[in-house]
Amino acid sequence: MLSRPSIAPDPGSPDVAGDVVLPSTATPSADRDTSTRPTFAADYRELGDRALAAAAGMGDRRAFEEIVRRLGPDMLRYATHLLSDRGAAEDIVQDALVDAWRGLRHFRSDSSLRTWLFSVVSHKVTDHRRRRSIAPVEDWVFERPSQDPRDDPSRTVSDADFLSALDDALAELPYRQRACWLLREVEGMKHTEIGTVMALSPGAVRGHLTRARATLETRLETWR
């Protein structure tokens, strides 16, 4: 088992919730029965994902803004890990959130809201990859070790070298292996959730993970 520093979103990443712009055409249409829309006295941050999805599906913008605040950064991290292009990832997440706003009325809770949103992002990433080649992973994607002088300098250098090696190894993985590994190891998803996001069977997910881990173990053998 590889011993590695944690992977996390860039602390300097933009406020996704503040950046998303919903088109005027995405406001609740006449066919939505807004008369049954619930009125929440409690803070939206106290509501669960399913309750927020139900409210947003009926056109509640405040509920959707909370969804974006809560899950938008995860969506941006995932898209950036896959594309290695921060600007493209931000555009894709923006498009995915607009599609989600329009499509939440059809959300049936067969999967978690987070899994459903990641599926939307995955489809956008796939479309983008058909049009462009993948650039090398940017340095900020992986959390760099603290530069606190109290830290052990040799450990700091070692961690930075490991992250650089992991960066290179991930960039060489086939797309589906890379995506499955990121969803499992970075996003902490179960095999069934990964299958939903990637439109793969659980067996196929396990196969991609096995091959990805084998490749990474070989490439990073010196770090074991």
Automatic annotation (TrEMBL):
One Pfam family this sequence matches: Sigma70_r4_2
Region (Disordered): 1-38
Keywords: DNA-binding, Sigma factor, Transcription, Transcription regulation
Domain RNA polymerase sigma-70 region, residue spans: 67-133
Superkingdom in the source lineage: Bacteria
UniProt key word Endoplasmic reticulum: no
Keyword Membrane applies: no
InterPro entries: RNA_pol_sigma-70-like, RNA_pol_sigma-70_dom, RNA_pol_sigma70_ECF_CS, RNA_pol_sigma70_r2, RNA_pol_sigma70_r4_t2, RNA_pol_sigma_r2, RNA_pol_sigma_r3/r4-like, WH-like_DNA-bd_sf
Entries under CDD domains matching the protein: Sigma70_r4 (cd06171)
Residue stretches making up the RNA polymerase sigma factor 70 region 4 type domain: 165-216
NCBIfam families xrefs: sigma70-ECF
Assigned protein family: Belongs to the sigma-70 factor family. ECF subfamily.
Designated name of the protein: RNA polymerase sigma factor
Organism expressing this protein natively: Rhodococcoides corynebacterioides
